[in-house]
Amino acid sequence: MAPVTGTLVLAGTPIGDIADAPPRLATELENADIVAAEDTRRLRGLTRALGIHTSGRVVSYFEGNESARTPELVEALVGGARVLLVTDAGMPSVSDPGYRLVAAAVEEGVKVTAVPGPSAVLTALALSGLPVDRFCFEGFLPRKAGERMGRLREVADERRTLVYFEAPHRLDDTLAAMAEVFGADRRAAVCRELTKTYEEVKRGPLGELAAWAAEGVRGEITVVVEGAPETGPAELDAGELVRRVRVREEAGERRKEAIAAVAAEAGLPKREVFDAVVAAKNAAAQAPGKTAQSPGNGKGLT
Question: For the chain, N or C: smaller number of CB within 10 Å?
Answer without folding.
Answer: N
